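Contributing: when you submit paired examples, paste them exactly as shown. First protein:
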Amino acid sequence: MKGPEDRFAWTATVGEKGQIVIPKQARELFGIKPGDTLLLLGDLERGIAIPQKGTMTDIFNAAFSEERKD
């Protein structure tokens, strides 16, 4: 699909076992390699999101980086 230069859209087919194949262009663009673990986030109203690698690490570090106030 054609869109803004930094935005992309792909389609994927769900197989009988619930598996999807991430399109090659998307894997290359985001550096996804065999054996990588991906996090899927779900929202009943907005659907499923697959955040870019490292996103959750950044969120985790931000959440736990503050000093504890006892």
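Second protein:
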Amino acid sequence: MKPIHQIIKKPLITEKSTLLKDDGNTVAFEVTMRANKIEIKRAIEQAFNVKVKDVRTMVVAGKPKRFGRNFGRRSNIKKAYISLAEGDIDFFGV
């Protein structure tokens, strides 16, 4: 298994992820493109000492952007929505 810091890049703190955390006991992370659901589940359980119920992943396509007179493209990212078991609701200690 890869080290945890190579699988989990950062938590996603957005309006949608905050609502999911409050309503559905779900948290969102940005993960590496090569990580699969099993690796993500093990990394989250090991890093935060929680019980993961379900992992859903999606690849978000990078937007085309303009840099002066040149056109470029942002990188694609992979998101993981992790459903936690009941009782693991205080995830970030807020």
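If you have annotations for the second protein, write them as plain sentences, like these:
The radius of gyration is 15 Å.
Helices lie at 4-7, 15-24, 37-48.
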